[in-house]
């Protein structure tokens, strides 16, 4: 990587996502913010474990640091009460301006979990608002759920290939995380180790974020969270499902308007 390192901000949707890019956090020592506290139906959050993990890797936890529950994010998206979310974009924008952040790294939009997709949309809105205040930054995304081993690299992709010692250290932190998280099901990360094996953790790939509209993504299909949510409604486990066109697209539009009104 070029030196000196550009000041960087990581913004993740859930505590635990930092495990996907721990090598990069150790190399760049960014400030790290988190959208939600990781609490699920059990009510237990895991922010303290994430705080410890980020500091152990060399990153610096920074507000907003898990101010919302996942349920609050879903509720905001379902009801169109986006103020709590635009407040977070405003805090991120201020951090970008004040710390002269040049790179922002956030969850990729994968259509898997609405909180992940909202995280990326918030990062992009914050960067656009900061740009209006004179601070230019580039947004990068990393895959949270997918584990593509693509090699068709472009010049603008940030690729980190961990050596054996770096991989061992990362897996040790991930294992310690899963142990400390205790009862909380850390399914995205531990599931990935099980599915793809430790080698999938060696490569960390940060790609300049796509600015394609949500409506143009997913090849015209419903994203996973929509079909999954509708199945849960049929089973009587959810009362309503989050939908791309009904809920996420209006949120994207709200953020666009918010950027234009932010100063
Ligand atoms: Zn997640």
Global morphology: globular
Fraction of residues in helix = 40-55%
Structure annotation, total helices: 9
Which kinds of small molecule does this entry bind, naming each only once?
zinc ion
Give me the secondary-structure category.
alpha/beta
Number of strands: 7
The CATH topology name reads: Rossmann fold
The largest beta-sheet arranges its strands as: 3-2-1-4-5-7-6
Give a written overview of the molecule.
With 263 residues, the protein is of the alpha/beta class. It has one domain: Rossmann fold. It has nine helices and seven strands, in the order E-H-E-H-E-H-H-E-H-E-E-H-H-E-H-H. Strand 2, helix 2 and strand 3 (60-68) form a beta-alpha-beta unit. Helix 5 (114-132) packs parallel to helix 9. The longest helix has 19 residues, at 114-132. The two termini are 33 Å apart. 41% of the residues are buried. The model has no long low-confidence stretch (mean pLDDT 89). The chain binds zinc ion (ZN).
Brief digest:
This protein is α/β, with parallel strands linked by helices.
What order do the helices and strands come in, and which of them pair?
Blueprint: E1 8-12, H1 22-28, E2 31-36, H2 47-57, E3 60-68, H3 70-79, H4 83-98, E4 103-107, H5 114-132, E5 138-142, E6 158-161, H6 164-181, H7 187-196, E7 203-208, H8 224-234, H9 244-261
Parallel strand pairs: 1-2, 1-4, 2-3, 4-5
Antiparallel strand pairs: 5-7, 6-7
The structure holds zinc ion (ZN).
Provide the descriptors you would attach to this structure in a database record.
9 helices, Rossmann fold, 15% strand, 46% helix, seven-stranded mixed beta sheet, binds zinc ion, 263 residues, alpha/beta, 7 strands
